[in-house]
Records
---
Amino acid sequence: MLSSEGKDESFFISVKKGGKARDFIMRKVCASDMKHNLAEMKSHVLEEISKVSTSEELDSVRVRYLGRKGEISVLLKHIGSLAPEERPEFGAAVNALREQVADAISRRKDELDKLALEEILHRDTIDISLPGEVYEIGGLHPLTKAMREVASVFSSLGFAAYESREAETDEMNFVKLNIAPGHPARDMQETFYLSDNTLMRTHTSPGQIRGMLSLKGKLPVRFIVPGRVYRRDPTDASHHPVFHQVEGLAVDIDVTFKELRGVLSAFMKRFFGQEVSTRLRPSYFPFTEPSCEVDISCMFCKGKGCSVCGGSGYLEVAGAGMVHPRVLVNGGYDPGKVTGFAFGFGLDRLAMLKYGIDDIRLLYGNDRRFLSQFRGL
Amino acid sequence: MRVPWTWLNEYTDLRWDPQEAAHRLTMAGINVEGLSYEKLEISSVVSAKVLDVKPHPRKPGQQIGILDAGTEKLQIVSGAPGFKKGNIALVVRPGGTLPGGVRIEPRELDGVVSQGMAVCANELLTGQPPRPHEDIILLPPGTALGIPAQELFELDDWVMELELTVNYSHCLGILGVAMEASALAKTPLVLPEVLEKWNWAGAYGSLEPESHNDGEPEIQINLPDPELCPRYVGKLVEDVRFAYSPVNIERRLYLAGQRPLNLIVDATNYVMLETGQPLHAFDAGKISGKAIAVRSSRPGEVLVTLDGEERELPERTIVIADASGPVAVAGIMGGKATEITGATRKVLVESAYFEPLLVRLASQKLKLRTEAALRFEKGVDPTAQAAAAERAAALIAGLSGGMPVSGYAETNHLQIEPKRIMLHMKTVERVLGTKFSPETCREILEAINFQVEEGGTTVPEGTSILVTVPPRRVDIQAEVDLIEEVARHYGYGNLGIGDLSRVVPGGITDPHKLCVEKIRDLLVSLGGMECVTNSLVGPGDLACLGWNSGDPRGNPVRLRNPLSSQESVLRTSLIPGLMKVASANMRSGIPGMFIWEIGRVFFPSAELPIEAGQIGFASYGVLKPETWLGGPDESGFYRMKGVISSLMDLLGAFNIEYLPRAGMPFHPGRSARIVANMSTIGEIGELHPVCLKHLDIPLPVTASWLSLDGLMSAVKPRDYKAVSRFMPVERDLAVIVPEGVPGGDVIDSIRKTGKHLVSVILFDIWRKPPVPPDHKSLAIRLVYQPQDRTLTEEELAEDRQRIMKRLKEDYDAVLRA
């Protein structure tokens, strides 16, 4: 609280601090005394500011000294009691004091705000070790994942995807593919029949004929046929009566066996990895001539020979060859003008090799514990 | 087919190790599936000379011999006729073993110790006792003593297991394999004398017999139907006596997978394995009527085959018949009645060409897959019958000590025109992508016994060659077949790899297919686990879902020849498959799952079944367990409806309605038809408790299906709309309607009646006071956001009135105070 009595040559300023009053005696003596007293006041006020611990207290200190009726403001009222020549110096000193105090309050305010924020942050701290809110994302079946990779590689090699029928005529499944009734190749495929002349396709190869016919002689022909196929094989670790194949067909004026090698080798590298090498081994299919089996170096033993590849270092993964002239004719193309290559492989086997699955039944059992392992990328 | 290494090398000296040979053959298309070293499990079997014999004092017929086994003298007891002083026998020393783990120890025979055993071929090769009339093995005089059996006979050998594709029927004889191998290894091919004489390996096939025997053949061969059997050679071998084959021949037959029987039958089998031409030996003395005919079976005819089975002969089976009826199933198996026995004195060796397809059908119907049938059905060399018969007769004569061979009969309706194909170098390059010279092609083709000439006058010199195809190569029909021969002997791996500069897509881009892949991704992001289930199901699976003949789903396409009734019809819905998955996972203790599948379903139609794309969904249990943050996420009707709505929204399929439905397989009060453009595109619902019971599924399951075509037809391209710059305004509305009013209808009605609404969300349903009984209060949050302004309070109030008026009229709705 402030009380000042304007008597004699001296006046008092009472400052109450913490309930204790202390008087500064401002004597009307000389400027140097005054300066001394102002300095004393400054150190006292600054100390007081530094001890303030809340912004409310700080605000009351500000009002006490710097308010319109604050102690420092009041000092200026007494300027008249000084000698005129001393007045400017006193005025400047008081203003300087005022600025210093204001500055100190402002700095203290920043400090207190910072402390208060820290306090809030501390108070709001959470246990980051607790589990978060998990989203249940589903997953694609490994066969779909493998199929997409296959389609994407072949797409980059210029092959579109064509879906063909699963129920077929004997004509499309066999005859048009150069497998006449009684042909020994029919023995290789145990067929589910629907009627005398309709059946469940035993391979995706009839897609070659349907695809070519739908293109009506246009060139180039370049597509894959993915899909389900059916064979009368009892289920075991490597057989399932329903499984998946991917057929590929390219027909143009200059398609060669050499390009077939290139395409298959590029596919195998991109699907299984750069270290995988591909070899073609002569074989027989009624709808291709020359025909070959497609072997890849075993990725499990790097070609050294292991139980997966039966010690040979190679895995048989596909069949291929140059499209038989009669098949080209059946698809509406002139074998005198165009050549073609075709290939086909079991998607299940490819997926099993890629993901290291040792039993085909797992693919069709859809056990959650199995499927969820393929959820990621 | 099994190819013993030593046997193969008899025809061409390969100078490769068996592994290398297996690899080279495989890479030329002769697929060697396995290569194994077959070791006869014997020990301490050595040559020993009988120094002296004396009769066993107490056992009549048994001799006690003292034998010199090189390093030791052995006392051995034997009753064999060949156990005579001066003969060199093969003996098992005490402690020695025979196949099958038979261990020979010194043993006492009625007071006389036998230190080992003199063995016959059957004991040596199989460990089994002697066959009838089988003598011990006798070695040539002068054979050194104490020499192990392995050094005296070819007992241990590598065996290649060939897995031949159907076009390589010429390799169904070891000579055929040898021919391929000699071409690959560039080593000469050496034929057995008789086959060389008959020019068996020639490009025009084996020679035709020059002349028949003078006079009446002893057995007349009649071919009434040349379609069944165009060529039949019968070779008579007289004065035969019963014997077993030499050890080396028996061992070769075992290694090749054929059980030796007796010298005559073994000779026919040996020649079959050698040349690929199946032969059969009849006891000529048992053929009645001095004539045989090759004809089609007659209804009701039966034959007891060599294996002792009485078989009814299926229709269109080719049979060999004598005056009494069938004596053999042609090309498959002989009959018991004319079998070679100990009493056989005269043999008829049959070497014929039977119609491949008929042999195949008969073999399938009789379920008799014999080595002979396997070869006939693939097609044998149509010229080699006489050569093979001669070879077998010579073998029989040679092995049995030079018995006279006479009699010869042949009937031949086959006119073998040499097949000649022009091979153009241009075509070779067009197909293979690599240039070939006529010389390279000639070299390759001649090495496998094709005959090659210059391309003739019609084409420029050096551009083509004229190739004569040996008749044994029944697989070679056209120019491309020759190209394959060139390519596989040149090496597929040497053909170079083409560049991949071709990027013009040549196919059909199916937008439908692209959309299906997007749907898959959306379903994954919505938490669904994709399944792939069998498209073959059982009628029971459909019946469990309550689909009977009244429902198209109860009328599946049936397989004619299913493996089992559980996989005997084509699925008419994806739901049965998903139910099995759900059930199996429940039983594995999985607390909950949301699964789906995209695949085809099938319905009967005139010719081929209708195939339709479908998405199936199923879910059960707790999809996400309760955590400290909340939950659990439970499956159920609304959960699945939400997924489907999200899917529709993401695809841009709007104006989807859910309408009440009835019938299996869903709970009548908890299921809906999913309708777009007035047609049903799917269903959703909780499974009917009766279905769950039939399926033996313990937990409630929600399922749904959507037709892919139906879904696609509902997808509309989305137009971009400008984003409003004005703040949205929210207003809540609580309306009380009678319980029977579908809440969805109220929401739809609000959506259609209100103006500038961007969202209408039902956030609460209240059925307690102050809402009157049999009523419900629907709390709905409306969000308004016009393009051009912020709505005023007056406008909002006006809209609310408009909505309430509509709801009052249509649903007797009142605003909740």
---
Amino acid sequence: MGYLALEALVIDVPGRDDGRPLDLHIESGQIWGVLGPNGVGKTTLLHTLAGLRAPRAGTLHLDAAPLSELGRRAVARRLGLVFQERADGFPATVLETAMIGRHPYLSPWQMESDADTRLARDALARLDVAHLEHRLVGTLSGGERQRVAIATVLTQAPQLWLADEPTNHLDLHHQTAVMALLAEQAANGRAVVLCLHDLNLAAQWCTHLLLLYPDGEACWGPARQMLVPTALERLYGQPLATTDIDGTPVFVPRRTS
Amino acid sequence: MRSLALPLTALALLAALALGLAVALGSVSLGPAQLGAVLVGQGDDLSRTLVLDLRLPRALAAFATGGLLAVAGALMQVLLRNPLADPYVLGLSGGAAVGALLAMLAGLGSALVSGSAFAGALLSTLLVFGLAHGTGSWTPSRLLLTGVVVAAGWGAVVTLMLALSPARALPGMLYWLMGDLSYARSPLPGLLVLASACLLAFPLGRSLNVLARGSLQAAALGVAVRPLEWTVYIAASLLTAVAVTIAGSIGFVGLVVPHMLRLVLGNDQRLILPASALAGGTLLTLADTLARTVIAPEQLPVGVITALLGVPTFLYLLHRSR
């Protein structure tokens, strides 16, 4: 059994038929990319895997325990989620934001220790936002806020990373830096599941892929087997040009009009 | 983030100073020496009566009321993820006012007026919560809207009652609606509730910090969101109900004090909640001292003073902030 096991899982996308139930195991060391067009349920899937939404059918096991029976705190010590959207109701500094990643580990009466602050600062440095630590998050650019959100999960240090389009808003260098960070997490024995829209990042970095189709169909497997141009063209309804650079397939959308 | 002690000590000193002023000033003002003598158990009978029987209970009641309102406001702001929320926004004061005015119209004594206000506040809480919770989806905006509409309904009922009341009952009713501490004589229950709220707030504080970033984010970081939101809502309602029971409806403290503190101290609830208790208490103690001295022997409604003090301060801080 993998670190996160999906058994006959059907996510609850309102107004859609069940489609094909998901039966797959996410093991340590793997990087799973979830691909699919807008509105297909990628975010719903990640939220379901994190236990934030109930599935329509099927079960999830996290670290060999049924996810629905683990408390929120126990879950938060095992998996971390990079959200696609973030609400900033109150102003908070970058360092304070990263520090909330330590929340699952601290008892109610405990203040954050110097070690917690060090973890948060290291995470911010890893994402190139250490120089912003006293800035208010609301005053940052979209890409900087994205990196602060990733630094928060890095501070949380979960065994399983769930990331909802973690490269959103990032420039080319930081897209690669973030994917390298996730690959490093996987190489250190953690597991990663991420939603992506960039086929080329998926081809470069993912070990496994899960393709979600609008009608509820799904297929999954090792990345090399899944990156078939005809399957991807059907997935997005978009003709693709394919080439090969340094042994990695590269996909470019064709102009159709 | 770690420096809780310094701001809290400073605020505690300010609170002590405000309480000292409140017991020293009045129709007969006492100097520091006379005040000290009374507090260590000496001094003449007049000053003993003035300080211990008249001014100290009222000052402590003002302190408790202000602290309760400010803590309730800080909690509501986190609950609704809206820095401009207020304990009165959710219709609490409206329910309390209807309860109190009904008791006054029925000619009941002040203890029953207080009890009736408390019941009205709780009824309003249950009404808003039940309506907002109806179909199971409870979002901050839904709760806020339900509260605003229910508050408007209570407002209409209050106006109707004022219109239909006999003229001799009107001054008392208006004073209650504007907030009045002159009948507050037993500060102990309010102070005890305030102290327990601060004790409860500390272990909940970090969870509230996370909740302030949204319920999904909080759940992903290990917070049991629904139980926490219930706890916060019920606690804030109880605090407001107790405050309203002591002194009638006093606006503005719950809105302004936490917000001012956030501008200066940041947004760590473990600091903001006890700081709100101290600063809210200080503000209302000073406001009440002004209310009973500025045109003595006449007294002003303390709610007017809190608004007149609070509005310019708040606007200045907002203007100056980043």
---
Amino acid sequence: MENRQIFYAADSSNQAHRAIVGTTMRISIVTPVYNPPQAAFEQCIDSVLGQTHSDWEWCLVDDCSTQAWVRTRLNELQAQDARIKVYLRSQNGGIVAASNDALALVSSEFVALLDNDDALHRNALKEVASYIVANPSVDYIYTDEDKINQDGEHYEPFLKPKWSPERFLAQNYCSHLSVIRTSLINRVGRFRDGFDGSQDYDLLLRVTEQTKNIAHIPKILYHWRAVAGSTALAGDNKLYAFTSATRAISEHLARRSIQAEVGFNQTNLMVTVKRKLTKHPQVSIIIPTCGTRKAVFGVDTCLVVNAVESILRKTTYPNYEIVVVVDKGTPAEVYTDLKRVGQDRMKIVEYDKPFNFSDKCNLGVVSTDAPLVMLLNDDTEVISPDWLETMVGHISESDVAMVGPMLVFEDNRIQSAAHSNTPTPHNFCRGYSSSELGDFGMLACARECSGVTGACALIKRDVYLEVGGMSESFPLAFNDCDFAFKVLERGYRIIWTPHAKLFHFETASRPDHVEPKEVELITARWGRNFGRDEYCRIQ
Amino acid sequence: MDDNSKRSTSLPAKELQSELIQLQAKLQKAEEKIMILELALMQSRDFAIGSAAQAGEAVANMNKFLHLKDLLKTANIHIENHEKHIARLEATLGEVGRANEVHRAKSKQLDLVYESASWKIGRFFMLPIRAIKRIAR
């Protein structure tokens, strides 16, 4: 409970707030009303009337509720406070029509969306108004949220990532509280018919297509009511909403000229997007090795030969080559086996310096001129035949520089599901079952992250060269973390996907200890980013 | 004629082939050079980016240090104020203690007066007057 508190907006002096915001930052709250649970609606009203920021208007539209008390209460509210605007529809038109009618009442520059049974944190509008005043170009703001049950108890705080367009394709994680510039809502055509249940998702998709000025306030400012039959309580209560969501995503991708298969996974209630590749740029799979042997599934195996063999046997992507960077002194039979297995796709580069993983990767990269390089450890084995198609699909976006897959141990537990820098860089969810969904579906959807393991990472060659490759100052560990920090600093996105899966028989091919020198150096370079991973705020 | 034609086509072919081999060797050398240059370029870039990151980290640490120093300064002022306040409280407490002692001594004196025979005799003689006063009230 105490931990959760820290993410709520702290009360600050109202006088100070007025000094910052002035009195002109009006926000319009838009609420379509239809037979809400009375107690919940009263709490919703209290939460608006109790806002510490007083410059708001509330546009309520009753969609012809069948419960008589609703209209009476709305009329009372309108009479009670001049900031409240009420419109009573003469016939039921559905949530889209009611929401659009409410939007028609809006007279301010920004619109906040509030459902009739949810509640705002008392500082919600104050936080949003302060943010807008400090960042006047912002067009869309979303905040963290939690849920409240019928007893008013708060639970499931959702500490959201910073703007993550890829994750947004799998789930409407922004949802509540959303505050959008009114002119932008009008420009994109407000809510659309035919998307009932996901009308807000559809709206946000169209809004985010039009602007890059998207901000996240990392504070819980919205309380989503979990009542019987609501999506907050169980996602599958409104399956029709997911059908609408799938259609909204398909149309969104079509508008962005992205060819993809869009599906809906009923097990984890997530939209799945699989990009169709129109081009197959060459991928150079770079495998540094010294020909180590290890028991894999109980059988003594030469790791690199096993990795290469699995690539050739399983991969369906047509255009790739394999560059194996081999330490001098590697047994001759490894060369023979590699040549036998790899045939015309294989290129062997000799490395004759003391072990330095980064240096070996760099040598592999300069040995090829393929536009995409895949760094792959020799202690891996391909599971998903379409692993390259999936990863190439993500990297085809212009601002994506690096893509990583789900890596699992022999027993299918997760070895790496991207990196998290909170509290310090580590493999996220290591040791978890790979069939888990993770917090808010983090393990089930492709998403932006702060880094992926160098054990398997697809990287644009241009970006690899631009950031100076893997730093030779990190011969053993943290080279991938350092690389990711360099990539992120240049404004690129890094994507992790669970839809490409490989085994990683970790530490089989290198010492498993961490050099204190490397810890010191990574801290000296990027220590300020530790403990504040904006894509993964779960500890 | 045949011999001549053979000579004329085979000679340039041989020359071309050797030229091609030479060019291939040159190309290989050029490619190796490019590789070395690319590696050197990456090293330089990594050094520059890494140094900039370290400088950024140093600045962040320095800011943190300055902030902490500022906090320490404020804390020291607070401590000093608290110490002065404690001294003032202690002085007041001493005064109160002394006042208490005086009060106790006076109370003792008063108790002695109340206990004395002269006080009791006086009260006995004043009893009717006190009664009249009470009735009058």
